Amino acid sequence: MDTQIVTSNSPNSNIEMTRNNVSMVFPNRAQFYSSCQLQNFSMPDSIIFYVSKNPSTSKFYQKMTRSCKCLFIKHPIIIVPHLSFSLWYKGWYTQGNRPSKDLPYGSTVYLNELTSKIWNTGSLTVFGNSSSWPVVTSYMTQIYQCDATCIYIYKQMFSFNDLMVIASECEMLYLLSVVMVNTDEVVPETEETAVSLEALFKAFPNVKIFTYVLPENSFNIVTTKTAEELLKIPHFLSLDKFRMRDIPEIFDIKSFYGHIKENKKTQINLEFSDQYSDEYETRLQTILDEILETENRDYKLPWISFSGITNSSREKMCALYRQN
After folding, report:
1. Cα separation of 52 and 48, whole Å?
2. Of 39-48, 78-87, 163-172, 233-242, which range is least confident?
3. Between the CA atoms of 180, 212, 82 and 110, what dihedral angle is there, to the nearest 10 degrees?
């Protein structure tokens, strides 16, 4: 027996319950509802209900809701390829309709008041620091699923569990002055429980490009064991690009230099903090000189930068990079 996708005793009640969801997505709500009709399926109601509540992919969900609008009403999800946050734009927005040369009258679509769930399929960008606005944490409840392959987050402190939710499919991860903590507090009070760099990296096996500009207090993130532990992670050795900036003196550059001399795949970029001892600066300069003086180099040339680097070393390194 054919069954209807809307199984309530009063179909209109289901529509009324989600009217606000649809109004945020479709500018002409009346037009949407006037074209929405109940649909019969030659499958048990339980199967239709399960499929509508558990779409396997975002593309499948889009095809499903295009074929039957009632499915969207039953489970309203907005597919968003690119999702961004900026204090300059006063909150979350998607860039699809922003003004451009081809669309001069386009407008940003803000998501602050959206009651539908969000399915992010492309990129997630958080730019703008606010101590009273825990941006990532506050938006977690609105995310249905995040398949973003590119994550860019600037000046935030939030839980490691939240990062696992939004970056599970990430291939390009950019963290700028970000602290992940082992707590689910809405606004962590301290950085004492910061997750180490190696623990962070170990959790994301799909990452191919990794950039971390360390926050001011990074001693809980980078330790004397960080270099050694990173080299034990198999997918670290297969990175396309690894960049770390504002590296503290505690980082074991001697151990990591052993990896540099064997690395033939990863583009390594190391930029050190301005606060280090004369002994550490001498160690960095010695390593750099050895790299630059090697003529038949059988490993990938790294970029190493620190405030005390000699002008001749900087010029030679820049010249080698231009040649490559």
Report:
1. 6
2. 39-48
3. 60
How far apart CA 44 and CA 2 sit, in angstroms, is: 8
Tokens 């990296």 -> residue: 201
> What are the chain's domains?
1-75 (no CATH), 91-323 (3.80.10)
Answer for the pair 213, 182: CB distance below 8 angstroms, yes or no: no
Beta carbons within 8 Å of 14's beta carbon, 6+ residues apart: 6, 8, 70, 73, 74
Q: Helix 311-323 vs helix 278-293: angle between axes, to the nearest 10 degrees?
A: 40
Report d(CA 78, CA 249) in Å as an integer.
46
The mean of the pLDDT values for the chain is 80
Whole-structure pTM value: 0.80
pLDDT digit string, tens, across residues 196-255: 999 999 999 999 999 999 988 777 899 999 999 999 999 999 999 999 999 999 999 999
Range 18-26 contact pairs with CB under 8 angstroms and sequence separation of 24 or more: 18/73, 18/74, 18/76, 20/115, 21/73, 21/76, 21/115, 21/116, 22/72, 22/73, 22/76, 24/113, 24/114, 24/115, 24/116, 25/76, 25/78, 25/114, 25/116
Residue 181, beta-bridge partner list: 159, 194
Distance CA 36, CA 267 (A): 53
